[in-house]
Amino acid sequence: MTNINYGKKKRLTGFNELAEVKMNISKYGCDYKCRYCFNTSLCVWGRGFDPADLDVTVIDREKLNALVELKGDTVIYPNTHDITPKHLEAHLLFIGKLLAVYPKVTVISKPNLVCIRAICEAFPEHKDKLTFLFTIGTVDDKVREFWEPYAPGIPERVKCLKLAHDLGFKTSVISEPLLDETPDGVLQMVKPYVSDVIWIGKGNMMMQRVSCNGHKDPETKARVKQLEVWHSKANLEVIYQRLKDDPQIRWKENIQTILGLRQPK
User: Fold this and answer.
1) Does 3-258 carry CATH code 1.10.260?
2) Whole-prediction pTM value?
């Protein structure tokens, strides 16, 4: 059996802010086809893929069957794809391997209710070390449908959040990219079911990414420009000042850097 070393210390941006180690079991692709997907753009820019070839998750059996070594206290899974019913057995297998090794495991997802229920039922004894981190960037399902056309709807994601919370698992939300003008609506919607923290972040290189991912139409470009206006430095400062004392909120590095809350490295 192959022994893969996944652990590398990196600058605290993106997924590296969320856990020390990030893992996945894919070769390439994701079933959700989000317009802004960072991994799709990386595959196109760096690996020469055509965006049309990245519409489904292709499982890497070597990663799935590899021994998992402890390389830190925290691990996040999956970082380049999502958890869907199509590959649910593989996800359950790998999450079990992570829980057997790591003290703290974060499962990140635009959650599907079948999958989240299955994970909760498979690992009830790991409520002390398993955290669910669900991506919810808008309260408007029409907005979600535009940006994340094949991902679960917002009502389903909230049901997943409530399910995990009510079963006693640690729950968090990440609103990155934030797809609304402000995070207030998302915060009001999710706070009753969040036991841990809520991350807020803006989109990174959105115009370049959507174009690279094959979305060069006028509507997509107009919506990106609207997000850029909404999440300008001036507007983010207003949002930050209003919410900075909320103990549950965490600001992603992209917002911290814009507002001068940390020095760029």
Assistant:
1) no
2) 0.92
